Amino acid sequence: MLDPQRGYDLIGDVHGCAHTLERLLERLGYRRQGGVWKHPQRMALFLGDIVDRGPRIREALHLVHDMVEAGQAHCIMGNHEFYALGWSTPAPPGSGRQFVREHSPRHARLIRQTLQQFEDHPGDWHDFLGWFQELPLLLDGGHFRLVHACWDAALIEALRAQYPDARVDLEFVQASAVPGSFASRVFNRLLRGTDMRLPDGLTLTSEDGFIRGSFRTKFWEDDPKTYGDIVFQPDALPEWVARMPLSEEERRQLLRYGEDEPLLFVGHYWCSGTPAPIRANLACLDYSAVLYGKLVAYRLDQETRLDPHKFVWVEVERPEALQ
């Protein structure tokens, strides 16, 4: 699918910031031709999460979809595209659910903007749900890889045994409704990452108002000693929790992406500050665009180690999020 000799522009979580995406594409040298954004030599690769939260979700979806259809881009599935599929897909008999993603108040809150923006365009929404089903869960370009949240080699090998191009079918989505199933583990790990339960039943309330009993963890730390060494999310752990030592069992449970592996690009994690590599072969391109952060790209050519000077971004202007 990917030509290893071609130049690619990898773009982080858009979340409905269509105008910001247009400004980023312009900065990257793309121009709108015949209604489609094109570059004479390069191709865009989107890391998923085009939907939810932002002010122009439908416009962003049309922009990205049209680029993909015209051969100007590829897009992988993010957890929010999976949430949309799960919200709309009946659960299998015996799962105890009506839909793959339960219609709870919490889940309804996440998808509310998307559904509202498609209220007058039901045909469009039906078509986009069909497109989400076709999105691969990952892309492997040889010297580089894309996955929305976490590259788990063992799970990916097992997934590819069933779906060589990492495009799953409706039955796989339905199977994810069963907690602990292979499908559930694939979606949770690849699209949501790794996490760990907080100690002693502790819960934390995130900045967006969700109460959580676990925290997102790094999957690349070499020799972590404490909870603070592995936390990777916008909301910090309380200092006394961050200082707590990891048990040997907790250390064994941690996934590790090696420094000698191909370049890996992820989104998902709501980073802040100046875009930069996490380490020489790992970068997160989600810099909280929909929270007035940055929409970030990395201009990839043939390098096998990340170049800090090849991150490109635009600041998200507040008026877009308010309109």
Describe the structure.
The chain has 323 residues and is of the alpha/beta class. It has a single domain (8-322), classed as Purple Acid Phosphatase, chain A, domain 2. 33% of the residues lie in helices and 18% in strands. The protein has helices spanning 18-27, 57-69, 79-88, 105-117, 122-134, 153-162, 170-175, 182-192, 227-230, 239-242, 248-253, 318-322, and strands spanning 8-11, 31-33, 36-38, 43-46, 73-75, 138-140, 144-147, 194-197, 204-205, 211-212, 214-217, 263-266, 282-284, 286-287, 294-300, 311-315. The strands form five sheets. Strands 1, 4, 5, 14, 15 and 16 form a six-stranded mixed sheet that branches. It has a four-stranded mixed sheet with strand order 6-7-12-13, with no helix packed on it. Strands 2-3 form a two-stranded antiparallel ribbon.
Keywords:
single chain, alpha/beta, Purple Acid Phosphatase, chain A, domain 2, 6-stranded mixed sheet, 4-stranded mixed sheet, 12 helices, 18% strand, globular
Overall domain count: 1
Structural class by SSE content: alpha/beta
Catalogue the unreliable spans. none
CATH superfamily descriptor? Metallo-dependent phosphatases
Query: What's the CATH architecture?
Result: 4-Layer Sandwich
The rough form would be described as globular
